[in-house]
Specification:
alpha+beta; 10 strands; single chain; two-stranded parallel ribbon; binds iron/sulfur cluster; 2 domains
Length: 310
């Protein structure tokens, strides 16, 4: 599809891509025009880094130029297609057991998202030409920024993307394409006076009313942080990640369980208790978490956390 198509053709092409995305299992999809990231947003991100609120996640300090304009990821990119996958579980681990963040319940979302974005890319190239590039978390692209631009949702005070009517238990991925699709209207909603997540955060990690200080966040500390945990960190029952700031969010009251089969947890995972984690061998860890995001913490990290929970 060329940029000289009549508007009706372009809107119909966009509708077809969105429809195909939904047929792949995505719950929401939006389109944004590739451009420089707004100066305010870029400056906020740079300030967050300058204040060292990214902890030891130094990879967030690299590729600043690409984070400011994703066309550096794909020559000639015109459109960012943002798509969201629901991971809210139908069955949860017992509250008596160590708690894992919901996103880690099923198969590693990088694999699941990459496969679906690849199919979406195939569809776009086959029907509308051009080239595409799928971005899944690891690419230096400002995912939530583009999700807002594409009208998919807004960023809450807990820094998650909130999809109106659906909540925040979603993975987001992006497909860059050289095809120019009509952009959606950016989402202009916001949290308003609510501050439930700020009050509920066990690490007091939501600072300045709306920014995460990773160094205090249990999600960062239990997954990304290497080495011993600081003595003053209280994990509660969080052995891997933390969902507290999402669980209290009113936008998640009507969260629907995922229909993505890869995200359904195994019985072995649902039953895993603290003693089993502490006694786990590398072979057992590999068996249960080979295709799980939990492998990021490694067995050492998981057992370090398990020793500190109560
Ligand atoms: S994930 Fe947990 S610790 Fe981190 S900001 Fe949310 S509630 Fe706070
Ligand atoms: S709990 Fe309230 S303040 Fe926090 S993200 Fe949800 S709506 Fe926004």
């Amino acid at each position: 599809m060329s940029s000289t198509c009549c508007p009706n053709d372009a809107e119909e092409a966009k509708r077809q891509v969105a429809e195909y995305a939904m047929s792949l299992g995505f719950s929401a999809v939006g389109f944004a025009r590739v451009d420089d990231v707004d100066a305010d947003s870029a400056d906020n991100f740079d300030r967050w880094i300058a204040e060292r609120r990214n902890g030891t996640m130094e990879y967030l300090e690299r590729y600043a130029d690409i984070r400011r304009n994703p066309s550096l990821l794909l020559d000639g990119a015109r459109t960012v297609i943002v798509a969201a996958l629901n991971y809210y579980p139908a069955r949860r681990r017992s509250p008596d057991l160590p708690q894992f963040a919901f996103y880690a319940y099923g198969r590693d979302y990088h694999e699941v998202m990459r496969e679906r974005l690849a199919s979406l890319g195939d569809y776009v190239r086959e029907h509308f030409g051009g080239s595409t590039r799928a971005c899944v978390d690891t690419a230096p692209i400002r995912e939530r920024y583009w999700a807002v631009k594409a009208g998919v949702g807004f960023v809450g005070k807990n820094s998650t993307l909130i999809i109106p009517g659906k909540g925040s238990f979603f993975f987001i991925g992006e497909l860059l394409t050289t095809v120019e699709f009509p952009p959606d209207e950016p989402c202009t909603l916001h949290c308003g006076a609510c501050s439930r997540c700020v009050d509920a955060c066990p690490g007091r990690a939501i600072v300045d009313g709306c920014r995460i200080d990773a160094r205090r966040c249990l999600s960062y500390l239990t997954i990304e942080h290497r080495g011993p945990l600081p003595d003053d960190v209280m994990l509660g029952n969080h052995v891997y990640g933390c969902d507290e700031c999402q669980l209290v969010c009113p936008h998640n009251l009507k969260a629907e369980p995922t229909a993505i089969p890869e995200f359904v947890p195994t019985e072995a995972f649902l039953a895993l208790d603290r003693e089993a984690i502490l006694a786990m061998t590398p072979v057992e860890f590999s068996e249960i978490f080979r295709h799980s995001a939990v492998k990021r913490a490694k067995l050492d990290g998981l057992q370090r956390n398990a020793k500190r929970i109560n």
